[in-house]
């Protein structure tokens, strides 16, 4: 059931979010350029020393796997916390959550449905945190044991 009440946007959080997204984009662009150079180095190394190149690729895959586990798990924890807060309060968005834009308060069955959707999404993030690194492990095994 929808109320006429609205959770007002937190202007400070909005500006912090924009700055955070901007910083993440800049870091991603820089990381991507370094990663391209790293891959070209591995390609030239693979022509002369394929074993050493395979070891470097395996090391890179392990680092990416660890980062994915951490990031997906943190996102899953956030959304799990959000869904629990919605279930407890029966209100979406819950009172403890700051928003970046004005959002109408939703209560009752609609809030519970949103909480269930958020809960499913958090479980999908946890599953991705486990399944994707397992596929990386298979790739590592294929590289090391041709």
List the helices and strands and how they pair.
Elements: E1 2-7, H1 11-48, H2 50-89, E2 91-92, E3 103-107, H3 109-144
Total count of helical runs of at least 4 residues: 3
Order of helices and strands: EHHEEH
Question: Separation of termini?
Answer: 59 Å
Which structural class fits the helix and strand makeup? Answer: mainly alpha
Number of strands: 3
Radius of gyration: 22 Å
What fraction of the residues are assigned to beta strands by DSSP?
5-15%
Uncertain runs: none
For the largest sheet, list the strands in their spatial order: 1-3-2
Number of domains: 1
Provide mean pLDDT, rounded: 89
Give the oligomer, counting copies of the same chain as homo and different chains as hetero: single chain
Helix content: over 70%
Sheet having the most strands: 3 strands, antiparallel
Instruction: Indicate the overall shape.
Output: elongated
Written description of the protein model:
The chain is mostly helical. The protein has one domain. The chain contains 3 helices and 3 strands. It has helices spanning 11-48, 50-89, 109-144; strands spanning 2-7, 91-92, 103-107. Strands 1-3-2 form a 3-stranded antiparallel sheet. Helix 1 (11-48) runs antiparallel to helix 2 (50-89) and helix 2 packs antiparallel against helix 3 (109-144). The radius of gyration is 22 Å and the shape is elongated.
Supply the key terms.
mainly alpha; 78% helix; elongated; 146 residues; 3-stranded antiparallel sheet; 3 helices; 3 strands
Entry summary:
This protein is mainly alpha-helical. The protein is 78% helix and 9% strand. The protein has one domain (2-144).
């Amino acid at each position: 059931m929808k109320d006429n009440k609205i959770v007002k946007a937190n202007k400070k959080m909005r500006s912090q979010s924009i700055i955070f997204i901007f910083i993440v984009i800049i870091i991603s662009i820089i990381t991507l350029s370094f990663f391209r150079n790293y891959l070209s180095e591995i390609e030239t190394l693979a022509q002369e020393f394929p074993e050493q190149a395979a070891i470097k690729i395996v090391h890179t895959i392990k680092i990416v796997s660890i980062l994915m586990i951490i990031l997906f798990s943190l996102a899953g924890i956030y959304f799990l916390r959000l869904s629990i807060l919605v279930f407890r309060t029966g209100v979406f968005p819950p009172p403890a959550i700051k928003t970046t834009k004005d959002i109408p308060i939703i209560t009752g069955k609609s809030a519970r449905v949103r909480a269930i959707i958020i809960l499913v999404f958090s479980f999908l993030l946890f599953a991705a945190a486990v399944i994707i690194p397992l596929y990386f492990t298979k790739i590592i095994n294929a590289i090391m044991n041709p």
